[in-house]
Write a structure and sequence with these properties.
Blueprint (H helix, E strand, L loop, with lengths): L2 H19 L10 E14 L5 E8 L2 H15 L14 E12 L2 E12 L4 E7 L3 H15 L6 H4 L2 E15 L4
Antiparallel strand pairs: 1-5, 1-6, 2-4, 3-4
Length: about 180
Amino acid sequence: MTRTTQLLTFALVTLAAACSSEKKSEPKAEAMTVTLHKCMIQVAPAGDPAKFEGTAQGEDETVVLEAAWTDVCAKLPEADKPTCKDDGKWEVMISGASGTLDGKTNYNKNVVLKARVETKDGSAESDKTMEDACKAATIEACKAAGAEGDCIAAGTHQKRGESSSTSTQRVAPKT
C-alpha cells in the first residue's frame, strides 16, 4: 500500500467513525400534568320502601317488646310474615319509653320495619370534567340495576349515594 492510499484509507475510516458516532439530538419531552376525575354513584329503585310499625305497652318490658314485634309482624303482607325478624330483609328500628307512677313502671315499645332496598353501584373516570365522570358512573350504575341509559333522569331509579375525587399527577414523558 502506498503512503497516499494509507492516508486516504485512514481519512475514510476516521470520517466513517465520526459519522456513525454522531447522535442526532431530539428535543426533550417535558413531563405533563394530568388531572383525573373519579365518580361513584349508587342507585336504587324509585319510591319509598315499605314500612311497618308495631307498638305495645305494659308493665313487663320483655313482654311489651315481644308484643310490639307480634303487632308489627301481623301487619306485614302474608308473603313477608315468615321474614318478619330477618334483618337481611328489613331495617329494624326499636324505640321506647318508660314512666313510673306510684311505684309501678309502665313501658311503651315501638318496632319499625323498613324494607331494605338493594342498591347498585357504578363508577367511572374522566380526564376532562367531574361532570363527565359522574354521567358515565350513573349510566354504569343504571346498567347494573338492569336499566338503560340515565335511569335517574328517567325516574325509574333514585340516587342513593355519590362520592367523587380528583387527583393530579405528573406523568413522565414517553421515551
